[in-house]
Amino acid sequence: MRCSEKGFLSMTTLDYLELLDWTARRVVPGKHGTTSESTPSIFERLSLQPNTWMALVTKFGKLFNHVAGRPKVIDDIRSRIHHRRFNLRRAARELLETEA
């Protein structure tokens, strides 16, 4: 359970991710590195919409079985043991095929 669900941090997961992204861009003495201001947001870099990310985080176990990833990648690989194509649940395929 997240701290925000216990009342310690009253922010949504999306707000928290934005805060992390903002923090990564700050120059602070003693901090080893920063994310450039010109670097796209975390969602742009992952090529995901925030609502897709939330679905992946909250429904991960229901979306994926043996492997997780974008449908194209999963479709292009086969099991090393059985040499069969991995199956991707329809909900995961529908969710991720809409993302570019």
Would you summarize the structure shown here?
It is built from six helices and no strands.
Task: Characterise the protein shown here.
The mean pLDDT is 80. This protein folds into two domains: 1-46, no CATH class; 47-100, no CATH class. Helices cover 44% and strands 0% of the residues. The protein is elongated, with a radius of gyration of 17 Å. With 100 residues, the chain is mainly α.
Number of strands: 0
Q: Helical amount among residues, as a percent range? A: 40-55%
Q: Outline the biggest β-sheet.
A: none
Q: Which ranges are low-confidence, i.e. pLDDT below 50, for 5 or more consecutive residues? A: none
Mean pLDDT: 80
Report the principal-axis shape. elongated
Count the helices. How many? Answer: 6
User: CA-to-CA gap between the ends?
Assistant: 31 Å
Structural class: mainly alpha
Order of helices and strands: HHHHHH
Strand content: under 5%
Q: What is the gyration radius calculated from CA atoms?
A: 17 Å
Count structural domains: 2
